[in-house]
Each structure stands twice: as structure tokens, then as C-alpha cells.
Design a protein that fits this description.
With about 400 residues, the chain is mostly helical. It is about 80% helix and about 0% strand. The chain is globular, with a radius of gyration of 23 Å. The termini are far apart.
Length: about 400
């Protein structure tokens, strides 16, 4: 049943991500994100209310988990687009690596809340995050500024110290209009039209044709499947393998996310230094394979060993996943003239990646029951290897450019 709910959640998340990214690009993102957070919170509260209302219908959980997956597609492409426009079109790896800590912090907070309530009232494990989401909707509505231009800031002009000095220097008074200036009026209008064209959102098809979008999307499908297998099932693995309670296994699995937090920052920093996001992802994925093998074989030796191996596995598994969904998506969107492409590109990449996130956790339960937990680790290693193969062309081009 848990695998079915995972499949429904991530399946709907993957499918509707493409539509919500397309819609977000064409909406006021402050209102869009506010409404999204409120609906996500509401879905969690309704789902958690099943405990106190004594609802045991499988149809109810299937329907609510499907709606939950649809509602939560509204968040990711919107926030990537908002953050991306605040830092220009240059290197964003380190900035997004630090910013992306919010995903791991959210995972840790979710596990901590679940661990606090799951043994005596699992409904609160959903109701409390739902209330937090609604509270954040209010904060978003009151304080979010979607674009720098909304408050008169030009990020590209203000990207160097010299330009900052120029911006702080008072402009000379404008001369009176001349015949030449009046003749140039049409040229100014044409320039204005070109600027407006850049503000228009691009279509899904044009976003797919951006070089690298398809490769990174397919790569993310396999990399994200591994990440979400461990996000969803690591507490269950620790519970059965180390004979822990549900709450204790939830708390102990937090170390995997802490490793992912550090990995996302280091991956972003290395991508900025080398200007080779593809090669950095390949390197992390290569090292993720032996880290999974070692974790499966030796994690039960002691708690200290378990924490250390969790940290290492999370570092290499979540590093490329975080890099692709943030900095890579934003940088690929900057390859087209339109300034309104980030939500669409990030929706395509993360939506495709979420197909893997739907399939991986969905087959984990049946596989673990039939073949044991070691089969899940081998499956994850194979998925990471296929993810590496998806970036061969991108890596080869980056090596040539680097040389």
C-alpha cells in the first residue's frame, strides 16, 4: 500500500509538473506560489485528518495522495525561476548549492515531525507540516518580490563593481529633444519591442530543444529515483535491518540528508570553478556507486559507522541531483533570449526526474519483500550507472571545451 501511494504521488507529480511550470511562467509568481502553498497545506491537513476521523478507505488515501502530488508540482519550478532571476545569467552553482539546503532542511524537519508523532498519532505528522505550509503562504504573499525589476533593480547591469559605481553616479541632465532624437524614436520603439519579446515565456517544445535539456532530464530521472528511494525507504530499511523503532529510524535517517546538504554545496562550488556541470555530476555519480555498496555491507556494524556511511552516500547521491534541478536548470534557461524560461526548463527537467522518483520508490516495497534489501542497493547502483551514461555526450563536450 505504501508503494502504491508513493507511485500515485510521484506519478501525478511527474505528469502535472510540465503543466504547472508552463502555467507559472505565465502568472504572477507571488500569487501563484501563495495559492500553491495554501493548497499543499490543505491537502496535508485533510490527509492527516483521516486518523482522528477513523477513515480506513484505500480509495480515500489513493485520491488524496494523487491530489497531494498534483498540488505540490506548483512549488519547484516557481521557486527556481524566482531565485534564478535574482542572480543574473552567470555562474549560479554555489548560490543554488547553498539555497538548495532548504530541500534537505525540509526533509529533516519532515522526518523529525513524523518521528515525534508517528508512534501515537500519525495524523499530526501530516497536519503540522500542512499548518506550516499555510503559514508560509501568508509570509510569501506579504514579502516575496518575484523579480528584481519589480523594485527597479537590473541584475545584469549591477553584476560588477564598476557598474555599481556607475549606477551610484548621478546622471547628467537630458538635453532638449532634437530632430535626430525624434527620428530615432522608431528605433527606440523597436528596441522596446525586442525587450518585450525577451519577457515572453517560451513553449515546452522550444525548451526541449535547448542543448543539454534532454540529457540532463533523463539523467535526473535515474539519479532522482535513487535519491527518493532512500528519502522514502531509508527509515524502513534501518527499522528492519538495525531493529529500531519507527521513531528512532526516522531520526537516524536524517544523516543521509545532512550528507546531501554538504554535497549540494560542494557540487555547486565545483561546477562554478570548472564551468563543467556535466563532469561534476558524472564524478559524483561514479563515487555514489561504491558508497552504496559499502553502506549496504557495513552500515550495521555500529551506529557511528551507520552515520558515517549514510553521510557519504547522501553526499554523492544528492549532490548531482541538487545541481541538476537548480543551477543546471537555470543556466540552461539562460541559453535562450527569453527571460521567462526558467520555470518551463526546470519543470521539464524536474518533471522528467520525478518519473524516476515515482518508479523507484514504487518498486522498492515489493522488491524488498521478495528479494531482500540488498536488491534495492544493487538496483540503485545500476540506476546511477545509467545516469552516468546519459551525460557522456555533455561530459565529452565539456572536456573538449576545458582543453
Amino acid at each position: 500500500m505504501l508503494s502504491i501511494m508513493d507511485a500515485l504521488y510521484w506519478g501525478n507529480y511527474a505528469i502535472f509538473m510540465f503543466f504547472t511550470g508552463y502555467l507559472a511562467e505565465r502568472s504572477d509568481m507571488r500569487y501563484f506560489l501563495t495559492g500553491a502553498l495554501m493548497l499543499c497545506g490543505l491537502m496535508c491537513i485533510i490527509l492527516g485528518s483521516a486518523y482522528s476521523l477513523q477513515i480506513h478507505s484505500e480509495a480515500f488515501f489513493i485520491m488524496m495522495e494523487s491530489l497531494n502530488g498534483i498540488m505540490q508540482t506548483t512549488g519547484w519550478p516557481t521557486v527556481v525561476a524566482i531565485v534564478g532571476v535574482w542572480f543574473g545569467s552567470k555562474k549560479k552553482g554555489l548560490i543554488f548549492g547553498i539555497w538548495n539546503l532548504h530541500t534537505s532542511v525540509g526533509n529533516i524537519l519532515g522526518l523529525a515531525i513524523a518521528g515525534a508523532f508517528v508512534d501515537y498519532n500519525w495524523g499530526l505528522s501530516l497536519i503540522v507540516p500542512g499548518c506550516i505550509s499555510i503559514a508560509m503562504a501568508l509570509i510569501t504573499f506579504l514579502f516575496l518580490i518575484p523579480k528584481p525589476s519589480d523594485i527597479g533593480i537590473n541584475v545584469e547591469i549591477a553584476s560588477t563593481k564598476e557598474d555599481m559605481k556607475k549606477l551610484s553616479t548621478p546622471s547628467p541632465p537630458l538635453p532638449p529633444p532634437t530632430t535626430t532624437m525624434m527620428m530615432n524614436g522608431q528605433q527606440n520603439d523597436d528596441h522596446h519591442l525586442k525587450v518585450n519579446d525577451k519577457e515572453k515565456a517560451i513553449s515546452l517544445w522550444k525548451a526541449l530543444l535547448i542543448p543539454g535539456v534532454i540529457e540532463f532530464s533523463i539523467c535526473l530521472a535515474f539519479a532522482k529515483s535513487v535519491s527518493y528511494i532512500f528519502l522514502n525507504w531509508l527509515p524502513k530499511f534501518l527499522e528492519e535491518n538495525d531493529h529500531l523503532s519507527s521513531s528512532s529510524s526516522a531520526y537516524e535517517s536524517i544523516m543521509f540528508d545532512i550528507g546531501g546538504m554538504v554535497g549540494s554545496i560542494i557540487a555547486g562550488l565545483l561546477a562554478d570553478k570548472t564551468n563543467s556541470s556535466g563532469l561534476i555530476c558524472i564524478g559524483f555519480l561514479i563515487l555514489a556507486i561504491p558508497s552504496l555498496f559499502i553502506f549496504e555491507k557495513f552500515s550495521s556494524i555500529s551506529q557511528a559507522m551507520n552515520f558515517t556511511l549514510q553521510f557519504i552516500a547522501g553526499f554523492f547521491i544528492n549532490g548531482p541531483y541538487a545541481l541538476i534541478t537548480t543551477a543546471v536548470s537555470a543556466n540552461l534557461a539562460c541559453k535562450v533570449p527569453s527571460k521567462s524560461a526558467m520555470a518551463t526548463v526546470s519543470a521539464i527537467i524536474d518533471g522528467t526526474g520525478s518519473i524516476g522518483a515515482a518508479i523507484g520508490p514504487a518498486i522498492t516495497g515489493p522488491m524488498a519483500d521478495r528479494f531482500g534489501w540488498n536488491s534495492i542497493f544493487y538496483l540503485s547502483m545500476i540506476a546511477d550507472f545509467i545516469a552516468i551514461l546519459c551525460l557522456i555526450r555533455v561530459g565529452y563536450q565539456e572536456i573538449r571545451h576545458f582543453i
